[in-house]
Design brief:
Helix content is 59%, strand content 3%. It has 286 residues and is an all-alpha fold. Helix 9 packs across helix 13. The structure holds 2-acetamido-2-deoxy-beta-D-glucopyranose (3 copies).
């Protein structure tokens, strides 16, 4: 009994810092799968030795527990950039100020992109690169206040948790109604339709503006700044005291949903283009 109680607690706490949770990461990967070029799909399926319809989604969360091991702990800071801004009065990300000495998500995207372009095309590197593109689109991964909201206690559907965790996990899972691979596929297909011919059709092209595989820092800093702006408008519009110890599964959740949908869609669409550019870049060098 003790054993079965311990395992879920460990999983939940590992989950809490893993960004977007499993559901979010797998959804981003499925959206990317829907948009990559045919050549990119062949390229990555072959490297991953996986010709299934889940070749990227399965790798998206493969190394989730890696950062909690002694060997992987160095990668923990790579999932976020702690903007030292002042929400809700002012938001903003500055690379020199906010990327700590131990690294950050912007530097990590640069690192892992150049590793992929140098033909270090292994499962672990693909996993990391895909994950960091997802993470940078979660507003509280681009915020230093209260450790990205981790120290702001909140209630969600009667459960005591923290603000960071509800953005990673509780709110996406409430929206979708589950967290299985099939839930992720279903959500990804809904967002893919919105991108192709729905609510996002007119803006999707603008999401790729400025994307430059030779300049991953500028590219991902743009993504971080755009995402961090939601901390002022949607995550903490009235400051942290307004949400601390409050039940957030009502109006707060309703206001967050459009941002979550947009950010997951953007992350997947951008990841597709990023993988296309990596695949083309590697092939050109070979
Ligand atoms: C690739 O996958 C197949 C089927 O799962 C497996 O039999 C094979 O050993 C794998 N090859 C490599 C190089 O991992
Ligand atoms: C880049 O990768 C190296 C080696 O893994 C690591 O030491 C460094 O901190 C990383 N830099 C950033 C900014 O993430
Ligand atoms: C938050 O949850 C705790 C523990 O269940 C409860 O005592 C408290 O009243 C809840 N607060 C709100 C605002 O719902």
């Amino acid at each position: 009994m003790k054993f079965t109680l311990t395992i879920p607690v460990l999983l939940i706490s590992a989950h809490s810092a893993a960004a977007w949770g499993t559901l979010g990461h797998e959804t981003v990967a499925f959206i990317a799968q829907n948009f990559v070029c045919d050549d990119t799909k062949i390229f990555f399926s072959s490297i991953l030795n996986d010709s299934s319809t889940e070749y990227l989604a399965k790798v998206a969360t493969w190394a989730d527990s890696y950062r909690y091991t002694a060997a992987g702990s160095f990668s923990a800071p790579f999932h976020f950039i702690d903007a030292e801004d002042n929400p809700p009065a002012s938001c903003g990300v500055k690379y020199a100020r906010d990327c700590g000495a131990k690294g950050c998500v912007v530097g990590a995207i640069q690192n892992y992109t150049s590793q992929l372009l140098d033909s270090s095309l292994d499962k672990a590197t693909i996993n990391m690169a895909a994950k960091f593109v997802g993470d940078i689109h979660q507003p509280l991964h681009d915020e230093g206040l209260a450790v990205g909201g981790n120290t702001i206690p909140v209630n969600f559907s009667g459960v005591v948790t923290n603000l960071h965790h509800i953005w990673d996990t509780n709110m996406p899972e409430k929206l979708v109604g589950g967290y299985s691979l099939d839930d992720a596929r279903r959500w990804a297909n809904i967002l893919t339709t919105e991108i192709r011919r729905g609510a996002f059709a007119h803006q999707a092209a603008s999401w790729l503006k400025g994307i430059d595989i030779t300049d991953p820092v500028s590219t991902s800093l743009h993504w971080a700044r755009e995402t961090n702006a939601f901390v002022c408008t949607t995550v903490l519009p009235d400051g942290q005291d307004a949400v601390a110890n409050q039940e957030l599964s009502g109006d707060y959740y309703e206001a967050a949903v459009p941002v979550i949908q947009l950010q997951i869609a953007r992350a997947g669409y951008r990841l597709a283009r990023w993988l296309d550019l990596i695949a083309v870049g590697v092939r050109t060098e070979l």
